[in-house]
Amino acid sequence: MNRAPVGIFDSGIGGLTVAHAMFERLPRESTIYFGDTARVPYGPKSPDTVRRYSLEILRWLLDQGVKAVVIACNTSTAHALEALQAASPVPVIGVIEPGARAAAAASANGPIGVIGTAGTIASNAYARAIQRARPGAVVVQQPCPLFVPLVEEGWFEHPAAELIARDYLEPLRRVRVDALVLGCTHYPLLKPLLQRVIGADVHLIDSGEETASAVDLALRAAGLEAPPGVSARHRFAVSDDEARFRAVGSRFIGERLSAAEVVPLG
């Protein structure tokens, strides 16, 4: 079982930032990544639909023999984490709690900012998780829907991206947040820009990096970590349009995505 891969899934491409963080943090662990590119985005869909899609992907990953599952999608984590944990014989880790705990720890008792897609912000999942980690915390949330297409265009430092970032982050600057959760898996690719706009004294919390740390702890606690000397293998699957996944996904993992298989679900 220790040599088995870790399953990672997202509604599309963005979860590759979580996969990349895992490659860095857990270099011996093999992975299987599934992107539901046929049904992206999940944000506008109902919680019941998101849970149904997520359970379908969970079943497919379990059929591949994974030893743990990472929900690298904020919307799926918000709506389906408990259902997947109840249905899974292996550990299931979402992206929200690790990021929320890190933000609560990083904040010096100032307001904590959260940016994400409209669906993630509307779910209020980060605010609830932060307040569980630090009761009484003031959480200021801001949807940033245009960041996803900017990232997928590769416009990380484009003047248009900076104008949009300044507009989105101004309410957070006004209240002087001292920690900012990047509550969408696309957003880490905008880190230098966001840091410049929000200010160097604000801690940026990358939920992908925090999730990789949480997976490391979960595997160790369960005695499931890959043994020394094992070479990691990484497999990628999508539900549609593997050519675009490979082309855009290469920006997320910092290397060429040479192959992805198509696995239709639903």
How many beta-strand elements? 10
The best one-word shape is: globular
The pLDDT mean sits at 94
Oligomer: single chain
Strand order of the largest sheet: 4-3-1-2-9-10
Class by SSE composition: alpha/beta
Query: What is the helical fraction, as a range of percent?
Result: 40-55%
- The run of helices and strands is EHEHEHEHEHHEHHEHEHEHE
Distance between the termini: 28 Å
Number of distinct helices: 11
Q: Supply Rg.
A: 18 Å
- The unreliable regions are none
Largest sheet: 6 strands, parallel
What percentage of amino acids are in beta strands?
Answer: 15-25%
General description of the model:
The chain is α/β, with parallel strands linked by helices and 266 residues long. The longest helix is centred in the N-terminal third of the chain and has 17 residues. The protein is globular. The mean pLDDT is 94.
Key descriptive features of the protein:
266 residues, 6-stranded parallel beta sheet, 4-stranded parallel beta sheet, 11 helices, 47% helix, globular
